[in-house]
Amino acid sequence: MFPSSLAESHCSSSVQAGCFCKDICANVKVAVFDLGGTLMEYKGMHLSWDGYYKGAFEYVDNFLSLGLSAAQIENAVKTLKEYNPRIKPREKEIPAEKIFSDAVAGWKTNLPVEKIISAFFDSLSLTPVIYEDAVPVLQKLRDSGIKTAAFTDVASAMPDSLHKSYVAPLMPFFDLYVSSVSCGYRKPNPKGLRDIAEFFNVRPEELVMIGDTKRDILAAKSFGCASVLIQRENGFEPSDFGQDYTIHNALEVCNLIASGE
């Protein structure tokens, strides 16, 4: 059972401490982690990324010697924004190749779209930062017999293979990787959680979702599993998305699950 101080500080106001906290952690067999903002981040990047589109397309133009007009670049930016789920929310995932094919439709180029995508993301010079507690928490959970899975929304128009390359240091510590691309839907749609539960042959109550956004919590609640909001800015008023627990360091997940044993 939770020590009372731990229960009071990490259980959301919508749940009771003590036995209830023990009940929803008692049978956890799989810990599912969001990635961006939960176990890693892209250094210096804003959440929406739309402010980088114009510069990225100008880089593509120069790098590939396309000779584009300002209007052609602006139209590509506009199309990319239309697909950006932070600007126009959507749950259905759309392949990067489809998004970029539409964005550059007015360019009249025969270049493979994959080459344009590669140049576009090269221009962003993305620097992934793996949080210090990321590998330790995954390793500790696996050592204790808990399966680990990633359930992540890939950045809009980014190929899944590229996304996985940025989180390569984490991949050996996951028993399963599921993304919005591989499952076809973005959070808060719970399709990815259903796929994970099916893969491990577990019930919703045997799974816990850990993430840093409202979408993560809503996906967990829709699926029927326990939810943990990680809010790394310790000292701020905790956000209340209806999560079962709030933590400030990923390693606290181990305490939650251990408390349920």
Biggest pleated-sheet summary: 6 strands, parallel
Count of alpha/pi helices: 12
Indicate the proportion of strand residues: 5-15%
How far is it from the N-terminal to the C-terminal residue, by CA?
8 Å
Summed over residues and divided by their number, the pLDDT gives a mean of 88
- Number of DSSP strand runs: 8
**Weakly predicted, low-confidence segments:** 1-10, 12-22
Structural class: alpha/beta
Q: Judging from the principal axes of the Cα atoms, what is the shape?
A: elongated
Please compute the radius of gyration using only Cα atoms.
20 Å
Query: Strand order within the widest sheet?
Result: 5-4-1-6-7-8
Instruction: Write down the oligomeric state.
Output: single chain
Provide the succession of SSEs.
HHEEHHHHEHEHEHHEHEEH
Percent of residues in helices: 40-55%
Description:
There is one protein chain. With 261 residues, the protein is an alpha/beta fold. The protein is built from twelve helices and eight strands. The chain has helices at residues 4-10, 19-25, 53-63, 70-83, 96-103, 113-124, 134-143, 160-166, 180-183, 191-200, 214-223, 252-259; strands at residues 30-33, 40-42, 128-130, 147-152, 176-179, 207-211, 226-230, 245-247. Strands 5-4-1-6-7-8 form a six-stranded parallel sheet. The chain has a two-stranded antiparallel ribbon with strand order 2-3. Strand 6 (207-211), helix 11 (214-223) and strand 7 form a beta-alpha-beta unit. Helix 3 packs across helix 6 and helix 5 (96-103) crosses helix 6. The longest helix has 14 residues, at 70-83. The radius of gyration is 20 Å and the shape is elongated. The N and C termini lie close together (8 Å). Residues 1-10 and 12-22 have low confidence and may be disordered.
